[in-house]
Amino acid sequence: MIRKTTAMILCALMVFSLGGCQFRRDDVEEYDPTKTYLYIGNYDGGLGDEWLLALAEEYMAEHTDVIIRIENDKDRFADATLLEQMDNYGYDMYFVNAVTYSNYVARGKMLNITDAVTTDLDGENESIADKMNPTLREYYQTEDDQFYAVPFFDSIFGTVYDVDLFETEGFYYNENGNLMCDDPTSDVKSAGPDGKMETEYDNGLPATYSQWENLMHTMKYDFSIIPYIWTGEYTYYRYRFLTSIWADYEGKADFDLNMTFNGSYTFDGDETATPISVNNAYLLQQQQGKKYALDYAEYIVRNGLYVKTSFDGTNTHMMAQRSYLDSAVEGDRIAMIIEGGWWENEARSFFDEIVADSGEEYAFGTRRFAFMPTPKSDDGKSDPDTTLISSTGNSVAFIAANTAEPELAKDFLRFVHSDHGLRTFTRMTGAIRPYDYELEEGDLAEMTHYAKNMWEIYHSEDTEISYVTLYYNDCFVQEASFLGSNWWWKSTVNGREYLDAMWEFSQEPSLNAENYFLGLQTTFSQSVWNNRMSKYFD
Amino acid sequence: MRTNKIQHDQLGKSAFTVAGLVLLFLYTVSFLAPLFWALFTSFKTELDFMRNTFGFPSKFILDNYIYVFDNLAAPVPRVGNIYIVEMFYNSICYTVLCTLTHTFTPFICAYAVAKFDFKFGKFIYGIVIVTLILPIIGNLASSIQVSKAVGFYDNLFGVAIMKGYFIGTNFLIYYASFKSLPNDFKEAAEIDGASQFQILTRVVTPLVKTTIGAVALLSFISYWNDYTTAMIYLPSRPTIAYGLYYFTHSSTNEASYVTVAIAACMLVTIPIFIVFLIFKNKLVGNMAVGGIKG
Amino acid sequence: MKNAFSRCLEKIKSACYSVSVAIHSAKRKIFKKSRPRTMSSRRRGELAFFIALVAYPLAQFAVFYIGVNINSVLLAFQHFDTGTAQFYFNGAGELFDNFASFLSDLRGNAARITATLNSVILYVCTLCIALPLNLVFSFFLYKKVPAYGFFRVVLFLPQIISALVVSLMFRYFVENALTTVIGFNLLTTKKTGFATIVFYNIWAGFGTQILIYTSAMTKIDDSLVEFGELEGISLLREFWQITLPLIFPTITIFLVAGIAGLFTNQAGLYNFYGGGARDDLQTLGYVFFVRIIRSDNASYAQYPYASAAGLLFTLVATPITLAVKYLLEKFVPSTE
Question: The complex's ipTM?
């Protein structure tokens, strides 16, 4: 019996290995030696690849001797993996969502594209560098004035709310400062957190912490609506949410100190500003904006204002998006989701699934969502401007140093960064590129309410963007295990360490915003700081 | 013939029996419930799953399986994606080769030690016992380095050789069954003029073939399910087990649904389950090992 | 990755070669002889066959067990230079740096302390809950309870179905289905998280042990059992007084070999979470596994640290193992 079985297995193996050459592999199209090929690696996260395909088509129509091949992946194009493996990949250029720029430059992985970036684009009297967001231009221009990459896309991160729901249930504040559902005497929206009527995107939204609290309370107890959902798979969604509240409280200039370690800060109760450098950056853990953000976290978690699955690892960001969307059809309604600018595009196929099941009114583009800026503190200590955080300042487009077609790649890069290329991107993905360009009526007509809302907030004069994923200061790269994600929210209370404030509040009754906040200063006490960081001191 | 069958009047008489049976029953339920839940889930649409997590599918669909069959893939450096059929093929190659080395190496070694009276044999037996007792921890890094140094890294045959230790419980299982064979057959065969090789292949092997079968089946199952070896040592030969790991844990596939992930689990489990059902009777009573005194 | 090991390897290769040459010439000599059946020539024939049988297993063992472990010890005294992508031996002053940094992690790093505690908890639970359950289940299978054929398949299912599949199904079932029934998530709740992992390890750990225990039980002399039955002893007493003592040598193997598991058991966490398990769930085995599995410089840089930790673990585990073996043999009366 055994011998027979073995024989059978061996025969099967032989057959297999003889016929084995015809396994299905990804199609490789015939190589045409008369054409020039450009291979592009694209990180197809929430943005997908339609926009890039469309631009490549256009480019190929104009340059018939060129063939552009786009390959999508996420794992292979992730920061550390790409850095180690890109010599083996053989793509000419990349559009990726996160890189540690200084590492790539230091290891010579990126082609110097200064000429392509700094000379005027065809038919425009501006260069790519001219159009670039100033913060990012300063970041991507190396000390010897060279460019090795250009910023890819920008997205604000924070709370997204369901406009349809807010309108039908009257969750906006009116000019009297009451929720419309409680006070039907006026349906004129309040001025919102920034206090300005002319900026419509935040009108009617909670302007202060107490208004926000009141709104949450009303949703939960008067309407049985669950205020929040977020993903449990990626903890950084929670950190970033808290960080966005903190950044808005401090304002861009003060908040950015946490990344640059360069400037000065007036601490709570102080008369004069304290100069901040790497020598004393641990003091920044006292920024009151952190306490303000932790107050939100404590209120949301302790009052159960979130969907129970929000901390589950199986509740991926896609699952959270689906639950959020499906709540309009079945189950408990969810009002808000913690997400980034890309989410609506990412969830697109699920919109279609709901449409197939429940009807056209749930379609992508028909349902309306919008971004909710952070309410200001009741004691008036919040910075009056709106500060948003972008988690994608480190997303870049760049050309591989070992490309066989540097000129072609540069030309395509310039094409993608022409006003037309930039517009096409925004029209098709709803996301924004950190460059100076205008949309046309036709573009806006194709965009969803959410995309238009983001565009409006992003370009408002009252808005500033802080890039939380940029390494302005080199010690963040060198001391990744010490600073890394710890630097933002790692607290030590009674000798125990906590990183994920929202989750910890749900687990540890003894924790609250107050002791968690003080614990941040324990984690980064003066002695711990000196011990580890003294080698970087001035 | 056997007296160890439980007497029916013994049942229900003692708390021990009742407790044991209840535990056994509870365990069965606890294991089969998620299994059936998963089976049903794999036939649901994602929307159905989200709205009706626990119940039967409101409509049975095969789409998840079709999706898995088309999309279950793992990337190989410089080649691109490897798809399900090729991964099954890799799995078969990997499993068969490793099963062969893992069954064969301890077999010949245990035979030499059990049936030949040399001092060196005692020494080898000592090695087995010492390595079994001596807990060597944390040598994975070194093992990866060595495999690269000898050229076995990313080499199917090399990895199979690397995995084919003679030490371990398999040696003890063979050793116990060789020891239980009387020595006269060997002498008889020798008198008949059989060579040592013939004795081993023609006389001894048939006598212990059930043990070989059991060891082979166990190895087969464990190598079929092993994804870490393919992940660490065989970057260009992803097996179906690794493919499943990649499919369910990679961020590239995170867009896929829970129902799809579960369907993938089912699809990978079915072949090995069939193999087990065919051969399960071979697993009875051949796996005794002796003590470790010595 | 040219290192000390490669040089050693060259030497081993040449040594192996000369051994094989020696064996071949010995064989030739032996086979050339005519076949007068003297004791000594038969002995020599056996010796040749014996050598032929053990040569390959021993060579394999020499490289992949002894070689690997020697290299592992050497690695513990090296460091990886990311610039040149090479391993270098530490200088005299920092010879024990890897050990020192591991020991300071063990003391100061809260996550590492949790991992150590978790490993101990998991080990104790496996010993005190899983082992008795394995034995009782095996006994019932051996006594052929009603539907034992069915139970046998069920108890072996966790071995047949890939651990990855079992853990994924377990996780989805707990997080998606069970949560809707009990109202909270067993895995993400801190209080129950690790307990759930321990439960999973016991629950999904049946299979091979049962197979081997039932095999050992069926080898028990029928007359002993019959004698017991004539005496009218209860099933519990039969289990306790006849079965258990008689299969104890088999149990000893698992007890003794299991001690290393204290340091190597990664509790299936890699199946559950890939590289991203929460700190409060990690075990030592998991911590070191995820550090070195990726084939990149970041991973290589961790090799020496992991090897140093492994060496220390081995030094701790060996006396424990030997003590356990000694005690088991001393205080548990042998029935052989």
Answer: 0.84
